Write the structure tokens for this entry.
Amino acid sequence: MTFDSFLPLTDDQRSVRDLAREFGASDITPHAERWDREALFERSLVEKLGALGFLGMLIPEEYDGLGLDTVTYLLALEEIAAADASAAVLMSVHNSLPTQMILRWGSDEQKERFLRPMARGEKLGAFALSEPDSGSDAASLSTQARRDGDDWVLTGTKAWVTSGTHADVIVAMARTDTADDRKGARGIGAFIITPDLPGFHVGKKEDKMGLRSSPTVQLVFDELRVPAANLLGDVGSGFIYAMQSLDHGRLGIAAQACGIARAALAHSLSYAEGRTQFGRPIKDHQAIQFKLADMASRVAAARAMLYGSAAAKDRGERITMYGSMSKLLASETAMWVTTQAVQIFGGYGYVKDYPVERLFRDAKVTEIYEGTSEIQRIVIARELYATQ
Ligand code: CAA
């Protein structure tokens, strides 16, 4: 069940999507249940995704990436998510956030040092914006950066960092204004951090409901010394860079949510064919047919929104509103569709014998990270007035 026939895809887009689908089926799906059960982050997966070029999809060929368009990238990401949502989030964060930030605002030296190996998948990227006391209100972050000679010295704790245990390059936001001269969102810088820098510590690892094989951690910066050359772009523009990158990142999470929803629908269709109650397959009961029809319709709508937004981005349009709409629609679709899937499976949906239980748990976070559904609604409502 792919619903691709109504998307105007090129042959190249179809072949990248097919490659991702085949890789998901051969190298991810067979392990997804165990990775989830053991909360196991499989580093070899990063190497394999890198070898396929999937960690440099949006990076130009001059920096060793594939230089593909957003639609192609999201098609591949959706396929990986349909195989395993945890694998998809590492791919989404890496491709959408730190690499895009370095590509857009990095110096030539930063691109050579960090972007090139990230494009090849030799270095994994992470993004550190949130803190224990700063989530939806991202501009209230308190990690402080103080200039000291040729270095910046960072002190504070970042939270909810995807791939934080294994990341080689982290783009972290910290305050560059001072206590006496607070500048709000304009007093935040973006820094390229590597785990070898003195004062870098991996803190608490979260014990999550879903995405269990994607490690989410706190990062503790204890007088972390960062060379001034690792500041990204302008000193007070880190928050703006983060917001612009999240416009793009939210499309990645929408693709992840579409992959989860599509997988839940596919499992439901096949279960409803094989499961007999009251003398016939449950797919022949109208109660189940209505569910399957609604699930399929919502998945198709979420995908149409996503790929329409991606095409707008590829045409160079501003997609702040469409990125938020795509994420809102896709994540709420994933939660709704996986809830219906569990219901169709009945008791078997509530236990770990079938994948829909994991899909249901994995779906939830898509309504939370990279901006909750409530934040997406705020962004959409603001944009409605701004674009009038
Ligand atoms: N593009 C460009 N600029 C933007 C922008 C965008 N999308 N959004 C905001 N800005 C600019 C504004 O224009 C403003 O600039 P000026 O100073 O020139 O006026 C500045 O940023 C401040 O903007 P706001 O006044 O709108 O800021 P705010 O404090 O009201 O917050 C918000 C806006 C949309 C609520 C924002 O805080 C937000 O998106 N919060 C959610 C944070 C989030 O998504 N966190 C996810 C973290 S990543 C993650 O989940 C982990 C992971 O690894 C997956």
About this structure: The beta strands are 125-128, 144-148, 151-162, 169-175, 188-193, 200-205, 216-227, 231-232, 276-277, 280-281.
